[in-house]
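wait is this the right file?? whatever heres the structure
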């Protein structure tokens, strides 16, 4: 092999031929063939140069050189090959002997192993059968379990236990569907499992849809129940306040020692938020609504992997229901439908509050808040629209009360209701204007029905209803019955109207978010009394009062109404929940003073007219009498008889102060008439005797005033006498020995301060001395002048100078 390799290296070097180019190409071709390189370039080059014969020649030359090498190699290994052939021939005999022995061994083996092979075949066959039987048993067992699960799923489906049915389906799908040996069962499962899930989803959706329909009715009933219980709780609070006011009143009046124990009853029937509501139990027997269908539907959709879709479906449907609840029927008056309208919304949000707290994330708090904001905006819009149309105060109050109860109810569930309360507060003025208008009509009707007769009460309950309930009694002692009251029926009628106004006003202002509203109630109460009632009484006095008895009854009514006004303001304070001392501190003057003054002026005017009829008898007075009248002139006796008769009647009706003011006005008028008679043109002159007669008349009138001391106080009796001051001072001046003292400022201020100097001058000029009578000058000529006459003349001269 070494020689061969050396030859391969030397062979291409036989380059000493004729043509060096051919030798080079032959050398390169030989080298490429030896190295196993690609001969394509050589072939392309030969054909490209047009000399393929040269390439063929070189290839033949290379082949010949390799044949010689092969021949040399064969010669070198020939001897070894011969020896190997000999060895193979010697082995052939051994192989034949071995072959024969193997054949014999095979024959014996086959004869021996034949039965064993047949047994082995039987064993293998039996083993295969056993495996098939085991597989069949396993398949049957698996199919039995599968069928049991299918049967159980069907049982749950038939019983409505959809969650358990879905669990069975999940188990079948995860454990048996891919492993079941039955292709039929597998196809059946692949077809039926989606169908069953769809059936469950459809059935649950139907049940949920039925629940959505049912919950609307339930929500309305629930809202009515909740608002009704809030109303009952409010009524209990009002009852407690009434007891407290009674206790305060008893303490204020100190009628008897009373101990009031104000115990607040537990609200057993109220709506309470059950903070322990669990997911598994949505039924609340107290509230009367069941969320189990909702919980069930939500749970099933969670199991089906449709949780988000169900959440969206629930929210959209509830939002649509709420939008539907906002619809206000134009066919039904809002006054009749407002309770249903607000109860439906209240029930909706009570249900949503329960769902939010117990449904495990079915609805978010932010979503509920957005729904509530929408509801509040819509309710405010509806209230604004309806309130703007209402023209009856009672209707507005009814709706306001229900809205405030709605606010109380939903505030307990954490919903803000300030916007609703703001709407109510905004219409406070309109409500009171309507209320004032209603009271104006009622008061006008009550006054028009008045017969100006004292009210007769036959039973104690009538006295309690018409007198004690308004605290207008003058004594705490219950009178004997039948009882004739000093007022007419219009007084308790008007009191009832005013009390109803106060209660309605307080009712509107209460529970409206404003705690201190007494000032508002008091402002409108002042308007009712000073504008409405006072105006109606003024109209009555100016148009419907005829005669002294009617005028006296009206004046008596005004005195009773003055006491009633004190009760009105106390009642308003009590209902507003402020201490009475604060109400007393803020008291103002009598709001019916115009009507009171008008009634007293009318009564006084009628009495003055009556007195004027008697005062015309003053024309019968002999002004130049020779002797003074001792028993009084005729006119004054008639006047006193009339006044005594008047007082005996009036004291049964009129309070002393009213009677005093009226008498004082009448006496002042009489005094002015006496002065006017002396001042008038009908009296040309008078003498001292006539003046002394007038002095007797005035003394009789003063005696009449003194006799009233038992009816009035001594000070009031003196005030009555003071009503005669002008005539008294004038008569005193005319009877005085020194009339010129009138010119003394000190004496004049002390004794003649009511006299007008012009009247004094005119009247003094009419006074004649007895010596001035006809022919009196002849007998008295040369006699000394009377000092009184001289003083009077000086007074007249000075007064003329002043004027």
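ok assuming it is, sequence goes like this
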């Amino acid at each position: 092999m070494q020689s061969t390799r050396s030859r391969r290296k030397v062979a291409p070097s036989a380059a000493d031929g004729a043509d060096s180019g051919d030798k080079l190409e032959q050398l390169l071709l030989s080298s490429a063939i030896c190295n196993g390189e690609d001969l394509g370039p050589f072939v392309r080059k030969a054909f490209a140069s047009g000399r393929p014969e040269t390439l063929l020649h070189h290839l033949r030359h290379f082949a010949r050189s390799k044949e010689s090498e092969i021949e040399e190699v064969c010669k070198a290994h020939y001897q070894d090959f011969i020896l190997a052939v000999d060895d193979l021939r010697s082995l052939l005999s051994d192989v034949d002997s071995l072959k024969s022995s193997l054949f014999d061994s095979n024959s014996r083996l086959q004869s021996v192993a034949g039965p064993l092979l047949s047994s082995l075949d039987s064993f293998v066959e039996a083993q295969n059968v056993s495996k098939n039987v085991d597989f069949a048993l396993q398949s049957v067992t698996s199919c039995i379990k599968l069928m049991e699960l299918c049967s159980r799923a069907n049982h749950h489906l038939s019983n409505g236990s959809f969650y358990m049915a879905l669990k069975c389906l999940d188990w079948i799908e995860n454990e048996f569907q891919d492993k079941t040996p039955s292709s039929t069962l597998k196809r059946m499962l692949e077809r039926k499992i989606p169908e069953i899930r769809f059936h469950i989803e459809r059935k649950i959706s139907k049940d949920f849809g039925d629940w959505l329909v049912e919950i609307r009715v339930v929500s309305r009933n629930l809202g009515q129940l909740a608002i009704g219980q809030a109303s009952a709780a409010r009524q209990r609070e009002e009852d407690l306040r009434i007891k407290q006011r009674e206790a305060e009143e008893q303490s204020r009046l100190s009628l008897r020692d009373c101990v009031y124990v104000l115990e607040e009853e537990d609200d057993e029937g109220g709506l309470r938020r059950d903070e322990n509501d669990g997911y598994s139990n949505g039924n609340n027997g107290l509230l009367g609504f069941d969320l189990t269908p909702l919980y069930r539907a939500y749970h099933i959709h969670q199991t089906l992997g449709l949780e988000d879709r169900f959440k969206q479906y629930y929210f959209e449907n509830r939002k649509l229901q709420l939008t539907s609840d906002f619809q206000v029927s134009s066919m039904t008056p809002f006054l009749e439908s407002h309770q249903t309208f607000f109860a439906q919304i209240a029930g909706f949000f009570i249900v949503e509050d329960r769902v939010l707290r117990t449904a495990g994330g079915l609805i978010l708090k932010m979503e509920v808040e957005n729904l509530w904001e929408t509801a509040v905006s819509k309710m405010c819009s509806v209230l604004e629209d309806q309130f703007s149309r209402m023209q009856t105060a009672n209707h507005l109050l009814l709706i306001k009360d229900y809205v405030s109860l709605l606010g109380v109810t939903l505030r307990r569930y954490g919903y803000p209701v300030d916007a609703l309360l703001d709407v109510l507060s905004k219409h406070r003025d309109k409500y009171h204007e309507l209320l004032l208008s209603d009271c104006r009509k009622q008061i006008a009707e009550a006054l028009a029905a008045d017969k100006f007769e004292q009210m007769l009460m036959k039973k104690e309950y009538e006295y309690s209803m018409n007198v004690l309930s308004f605290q207008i009694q003058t004594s705490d002692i219950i009178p004997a019955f039948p009882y004739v009251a000093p007022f007419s029926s219009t007084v308790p009628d008007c009191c009832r109207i005013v009390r109803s106004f106060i209660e309605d006003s307080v009712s509107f202002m209460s529970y409206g978010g404003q705690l201190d509203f007494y000032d508002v109630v008091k402002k409108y109460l002042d308007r009712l009394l000073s504008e409405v009632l006072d105006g109606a009484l003024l109209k009555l006095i100016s148009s419907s009062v005829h005669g002294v008895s009617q005028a006296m009854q009206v004046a008596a009514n005004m005195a009773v109404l003055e006491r009633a006004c004190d009760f009105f303001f106390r009642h308003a304070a009590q209902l507003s929940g402020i201490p009475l001392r604060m109400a007393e501190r803020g008291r103002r003057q009598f709001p019916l003073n115009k009507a009171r003054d008008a009634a007293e002026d009318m009564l006084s005017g009628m009495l003055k007219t009556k007195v004027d009829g008697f005062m015309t008898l003053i024309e019968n007075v002999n002004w130049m009498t020779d002797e003074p009248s001792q028993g009084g002139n005729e006119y004054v006796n008639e006047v006193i008889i009339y006044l005594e008769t008047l007082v005996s009647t009036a004291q049964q009706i009129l309070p002393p102060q009213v009677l005093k003011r009226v008498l004082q006005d009448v006496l002042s008028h009489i005094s002015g008439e006496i002065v006017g008679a002396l001042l008038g043109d009908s009296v040309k002159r008078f003498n001292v005797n006539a003046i002394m007669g007038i002095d007797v008349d005035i003394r009789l009138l003063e005696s009449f005033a003194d006799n009233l001391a038992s009816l009035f106080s001594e000070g009031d009796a003196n005030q009555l006498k003071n009503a005669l001051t002008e005539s008294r001072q004038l008569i005193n001046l005319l009877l005085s020995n020194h009339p010129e003292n009138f010119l003394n400022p000190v004496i004049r201020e002390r004794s003649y301060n009511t006299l007008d100097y012009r009247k004094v001058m005119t009247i003094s000029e009419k006074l004649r001395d007895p010596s001035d009578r006809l022919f009196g000058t002849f007998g008295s000529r040369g006699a000394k002048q009377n000092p009184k006459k001289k003083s009077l003349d000086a007074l007249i001269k000075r007064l003329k100078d002043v004027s």
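The chain has 28 helices and six strands. so i think its the right one actually
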